[in-house]
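Quick one, T. Sequence first:
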Amino acid sequence: MSQTAIINALREARLTGEKLATYPGPTPSSMAEAFAIQSAVRTSIGWTHAGWKIGCTSDKAQKALRTDGPFPGPVYRERLFSTGSHVETLAGNSRTTEPEIAFTLARELPARDKPWSVDEVLEAVATVHPSIEIVNPRLPRGFNDVVEWYVADGGLSHALVLGPGTKPLKRADYARITNRISINGISKYSGIASNALGGPELALTWLANNLIAKGLFLRAGDVVTTGVITEVFETEIDDFVKASYDLIGDVSVQL
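Structure tokens:
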């Protein structure tokens, strides 16, 4: 089967929310091919590209997905929700729920003759947000697949729930942010921002430079979520999840 068949199948699965019963083609032969498939889905799906997610920035997430580094995936306006929203999922979906720290960009970070530094990237930040990402793999083996399929499948994202924005913090404060998670009012998990690639400011800088290497770049208005900072955990339909962060506030979602 051709790459076109894979692109069409992943796009349809993204639009319908239905998991694919069979693989639409061979496993992508490289991360470059996997990202090319992701990009083709992103540009042909008919949704508005609103930013990026960074997958597997924590050791726990990398171990869970059996990979050794992060990867980007698109955030769509149609799958971007405000805190307190109801996010629909199908009975057969995964509802892996990931409390993360997100940023909205004030200006673009285009290609240039040297990498962007952490301080320069932080100067481009407009606001910082508490967020919750809902992850749902659409391929048959789900979380038991290889990383090339995760990348092709848009980084596995289903939805991103964004809390209110706050003004940027001092650089040293980002990695120190802690959070507490409750499900249906019962305290469950906690985490610290340094779990995500050493800190969300480092993850954001990684993405800024990684996209340039791929011929893309971060744009003004982009929302970027920087990876799970707690345990990786599943939720169920009707669960109410709240994530409370020091320094940046709260975010919640009804599944």
